[in-house]
Specification:
The structure holds two protein chains of two kinds. Chain A is an all-beta fold. Chain A has one helix at residues 146-150; strands at residues 35-43, 53-58, 84-88, 94-100, 116-123, 130-136, 160-163, 169-174, 184-185. In chain A, strands 3-2-5-6-7-8-1-4 form an eight-stranded mixed beta sheet, with no helix packed on it. The longest helix of chain A has 5 residues, at 146-150. Chain B is mostly beta strands. Chain B has one domain: Sandwich (Protocatechuate 3,4-Dioxygenase, subunit A), CATH 2.60.130.10. In chain B, 3% of the residues lie in helices and 24% in strands. Chain B has two helices and twelve strands. Chain B has helices spanning 41-44, 186-189, and strands spanning 35-36, 73-82, 92-96, 122-126, 132-138, 143-145, 151-153, 156-161, 170-175, 202-203, 214-217, 220-222. In chain B, strands 2, 5, 10, 11 and 12 form a five-stranded mixed beta sheet that branches. The chains are: A mainly beta, B mainly beta. At the A-B interface, strand 5, strand 6 and strand 9 of A face strand 1, helix 1, strand 3, strand 9 and strand 12 of B.
């Protein structure tokens, strides 16, 4: 049987080629759900911003349905909403996405997960894709989320985006250091 | 305990995030162990990019400008498979690379080598039902980087694959066979021995085009599904 191809870094020079345009607006007009703006900011192990990283996000629609054949539940799909976005980090280390708040999706062992956005991070110096999740601080469903329950309570805040004064959801992602984000081996 | 849909990849395949010979890794590699996440719908679904419309010439990097780029024209082709040997049909394959002189069309690349106005260096293609893909491009040059004294990257083409799920996302680099720079390259050598060789394309005489281009074959293998209990 063939063996899995090893990962390599994205390097610093993907911009303009693989990422020809920001694909950061996930929800064209008419897509159902609460419209949200999400700002992810990438920091290195010293806390400095990472201006040459790439974020990718993947999420369910507001009904909690993934636009994918593995999600066979009888829930609405929204025309024009795939649930995928990617954006290079800006000079301030941030990427901004316009989307809708995802609905809840089931957990294989039973129960439901809290609303979350799946996040991939690529950068020069990262030899593998690193994956995390963004949850919404204050959502009552967080208390029963099976993934958050797997995380040391002291580190859970690294997964919780907070709403700023303008209503934007912001999550700093730290690749290392005292505030290292919880990453997942998926 | 429900079984994960996709097989886990063991430590003998991928590079360690902290690979200090590659000097950008200590500042960016997570130190805490990643939490192993059982596969839910969030991991077994993923972007299929079915609505992306591709131009016919996006997989021919020699025809994206007005003239022909300088360099050695090559065909790069192969299949996208999973580790069960099954084709990954309609997989999106994206590539990017520097020009024949070793310079990227990117404002951050300060290497003192000429830009080629006829070479942009980015391409993509959707594999066919059998996982087959093909690019026409020029052989990228080697270039110096400041990782250590007299550091040179071996010629390489960056590859980006999505596969069928969030769990199967992969970004990698394709190298050329028997490149003498490979043994000095900390990025290539961060991959465990026995696995790094998979990143070398094979020279493919059969697919060369007489009087026109040499060919290289590079199969990409993504994670495969676990066998279901019924199949056991």
């Amino acid at each position: 049987m063939p063996q899995v191809t090893p990962s390599q870094t994205i390097g610093p020079f993907y911009w303009g080629t693989v990422v020809k345009a920001y694909r950061a607006d996930l929800a064209p007009p008419g897509v159902a759900g609460e419209r949200i703006e999400v700002v992810l900011t990438l920091h290195d192990v010293q806390g400095a911003i990472v201006p040459d990283g790439l974020f990718e996000i993947w999420q369910a629609n507001s009904h909690g349905r993934y636009n994918h054949p593995e999600d066979r539940r009888n829930l609405p799909l929204d025309a024009g909403f795939e649930g995928y976005g990617r954006a290079s980090t800006f000079t301030d280390g941030s990427s901004t996405f316009a989307t809708v708040k995802p609905g809840r999706v089931p957990w294989p062992a039973g129960g439901m997960q809290a609303p979350h956005i799946n996040v991939s991070i690529f950068a020069r110096g990262l030899l593998n894709r690193v994956a995390t999740r963004m949850y919404f601080d204050g959502d009552p469903a967080n208390a029963e989320d099976p993934v958050l329950k797997m995380v040391d309570p002291a580190r859970r805040p690294t997964l919780l985006a907070k709403k700023d004064g303008k209503g934007t959801w912001r999550l700093p992602i730290h690749l290392g250091g005292p505030n290292e984000t919880v990453f997942f081996d998926i | 305990m429900t079984q994960d849909l996709y097989r886990r990849t063991d430590a003998s395949t991928h590079p360690a995030n902290l690979s200090p010979e590659y000097k950008s890794t200590p500042g960016r590699a997570p130190r805490q162990p990643a939490i192993v996440l059982p596969h839910s719908l969030s991991e077994i679904t993923g972007p299929l990019l079915e609505t992306e419309r591709l131009d016919a010439l996006e997989n021919d990097l020699t025809k994206q400008r007005t003239g022909e780029p300088l360099g050695e024209r090559i065909v790069v082709h192969g299949r996208v498979l999973d580790e069960n040997g099954k084709a990954v049909p309609k997989a999106m394959v994206e590539i990017w690379q520097c020009n024949a002189a070793g310079r990227y069309h990117h404002p951050g690349d300060r290497h003192d080598a000429p830009l080629d106005p006829n070479f942009y260096g980015g391409g993509r293609v959707r594999a066919d039902e059998d996982g087959r893909y093909q690019f026409i491009t020029i052989k990228p040059g080697a270039y110096p980087w400041k990782n250590h004294h007299n550091a040179w990257r071996p010629a390489h083409i960056h590859f980006s694959l999505f596969g069928p799920a969030f769990a199967t996302r992969l970004i990698t680099q394709m190298y050329f066979p028997q490149d003498p720079l490979l043994s000095f390259d900390p990025i290539y050598n961060a991959v465990p021995a026995g696995a790094r060789e998979r990143l070398q394309a094979a020279f493919d005489m059969e697919h060369t085009r007489p009087e026109w281009a040499l060919a290289y074959k590079f199969d990409i293998v993504l994670r495969g599904r676990n066998a279901t209990p019924l199949e056991n």
